[in-house]
């Protein structure tokens, strides 16, 4: 087994094809195919299913990919360590977030301090954020509160209540507040299954003996916003993410607030990578500055 064979396998697996892998590695497709074929032949194992010009991983290939992800990530970390003087003058930091709103202040500080690092941000719900981190497809995640796990380093950001909202011209827009029982009678627009906002709402409503029925399910916060703005029902979002939209009106939910906690997370094993560590360090510093300070009484007061 040679390094070049594992590298060829890895890039075919993550890019989804031999041609794409060849382009990534600046090699010819026959060269990539030959390295993978030699790897499979030497160990008498099939790593890819090749059908109708489509390439998919076999179970053995899936298992090997988990190993090569760690292998090549460790290689990148070693390169960062050896190139420490250049590490934060270039590179890419990949963030996947259920709502980028919660990290804008960190992004401002990070861009000011490390202008050479390119930051990419993709959206996703709680499940896709975790999946992207575990698959090494993202460096840092932002998501609704996560149960403690030894796999992840977690930095708590903030907690805001979930609010209902509707179109400004909907008669419901004049409501002071709505209970779960009242919401259960209305046409509700919800995020896809896997959304933390939806799960928290359903759990809180269930504690009140109410089952919420979502008549429309949409993938992504913006899709929900547009559907509600068109007059098709009532949606939900954390107050911090409501934003300014003249088409929409917030309606508080009666009773104990349903809080959405946001957290910044990364795989513990990757937390010392230079760009990731720099971002997390800034987040911790800003969090400590924003934390309320205990008041001190004067002696004798």
Automatic annotation (TrEMBL):
InterPro entries named in the record: HTH-type_LysR_regulators (IPR050950), LysR_HTH_N (IPR000847), LysR_subst-bd (IPR005119), WH-like_DNA-bd_sf (IPR036388), WH_DNA-bd_sf (IPR036390)
Q: Which CDD domains match?
A: PBP2_LTTR_substrate
- GO MF annotations for this entry? DNA binding; DNA-binding transcription factor activity
Q: Does the keyword Transcription apply?
A: yes
Do the record's keywords include Iron-sulfur? no
The record's annotation in PANTHER family points to:
HTH-TYPE TRANSCRIPTIONAL REGULATOR YBHD
Q: What is the name attached to this protein's record?
A: LysR substrate-binding domain-containing protein
Q: Which organism is it from?
A: Ancylobacter mangrovi
């Amino acid at each position: 087994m040679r390094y070049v064979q594992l590298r060829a396998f890895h890039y075919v697996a993550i890019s989804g094809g031999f041609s794409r892998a060849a382009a990534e590695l600046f090699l010819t497709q026959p060269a990539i195919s030959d390295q993978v074929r030699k790897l499979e032949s030497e160990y008498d194992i099939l790593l890819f299913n090749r059908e109708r010009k489509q390439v998919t991983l076999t179970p053995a290939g899936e298992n090997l990919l988990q190993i090569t992800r760690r292998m090549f990530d460790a290689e990148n970390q070693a390169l960062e360590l050896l190139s420490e003087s250049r590490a934060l003058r270039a590179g890419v930091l990949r963030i996947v977030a259920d709502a980028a709103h919660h990290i804008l202040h960190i992004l401002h500080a990070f861009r000011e301090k490390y202008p050479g690092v390119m930051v990419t941000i993709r959206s996703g719900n709680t499940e896709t954020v975790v999946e992207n981190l575990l698959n090494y497809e993202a460096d840092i995640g932002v998501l609704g509160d996560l149960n403690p796990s030894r796999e992840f380093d977690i930095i708590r950001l903030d907690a805001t209540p979930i609010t209902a909202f509707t179109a400004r011209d909907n008669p419901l827009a004049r409501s002071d507040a709505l209970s779960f029982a009242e919401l259960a009678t209305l046409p509700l627009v919800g995020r896809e299954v896997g959304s933390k906002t939806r799960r928290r709402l359903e759990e809180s409503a269930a504690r009140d003996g109410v089952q919420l029925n979502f008549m429309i399910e949409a993938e992504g916060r913006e899709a929900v916003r547009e559907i509600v703005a068109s007059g098709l029902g009532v949606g939900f979002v954390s107050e911090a993410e409501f934003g300014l939209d003249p088409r929409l009106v917030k309606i508080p939910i009666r009773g104990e607030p349903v809080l959405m906690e946001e957290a910044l997370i990364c795989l513990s094993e990757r937390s010392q990578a230079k760009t990731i560590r720099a971002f997390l360090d800034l987040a911790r510093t800003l969090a400590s500055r924003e934390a309320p300070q205990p008041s001190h009484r004067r002696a004798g007061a």
